Amino acid sequence: MRALVVCLGNICRSPIGEGLLKHHAATNGFELTVESAGTSGWHQGNLPDERSMAVMQLHGHDISGQRSRALTREDLHLFDWILVMDQQNKADVLALGLGSACVERFVPDQDVPDPYYGGANGFETVYTMIDAAAKMWIAQWQAAKP
User: Fold this and answer.
1) Residue 7 annotated to the active site
2) Phi-psi bin for 97: left (phi > 0), alpha (psi -120 to 50), beta?
3) I want to staple 86 with a disulfide (CB 3.0 to 4.6 A). Which of 38, 40, 48, 111 is the partner?
4) Of these residues, 49, 75, 114, 131, which one is catalytic?
5) Which CATH number, 3.90.1720.10, 1.20.1250.20, 3.30.420.40, 3.40.50.2300, labels domain 2-144?
6) Active site includes 13?
7) Is 75 part of the annotated catalytic residue set?
8) Which position among 12, 13, 51, 75 bears the catalytic label?
9) What rounded mean pLDDT belongs to the chain?
10) CB neighbours of residue 33 within 10 Å
11) pLDDT digits (tens, 9 = 90+) for 9-63
């Protein structure tokens, strides 16, 4: 299975989502390819935000190997799932056209707030939300696998 995690700039929320999906898939022996992207190309090629890397490091995860990239129309066909961080991200993904990927919010029925302009506590809150949802997605995908 292939999943793409999407936020606006691909430096705060989606790198955390990518890292946590990879972690929980590996922990549960679930074969999953995960990438992340942004609906904008503003930070293309950049490392995740230092605060995202710090909160992940605090919890034992290293995402320093990730680099920001922009979402492409091809992504709608390359991935089975596209998990977006908020309703605006979902609208931006769907505006690219129809693809074969299922497009859903990472945290069902709830937007993950963008912590970029907030303080350090915002990154911890986002980490907690994304971690719980990542566990849920892995469990759901495992249960659906024949």
Assistant:
1) yes
2) left
3) 111
4) 114
5) 3.40.50.2300
6) yes
7) no
8) 13
9) 96
10) 14
11) 999 999 999 999 999 999 999 999 999 999 998 899 999 999 999 999 999 999 9
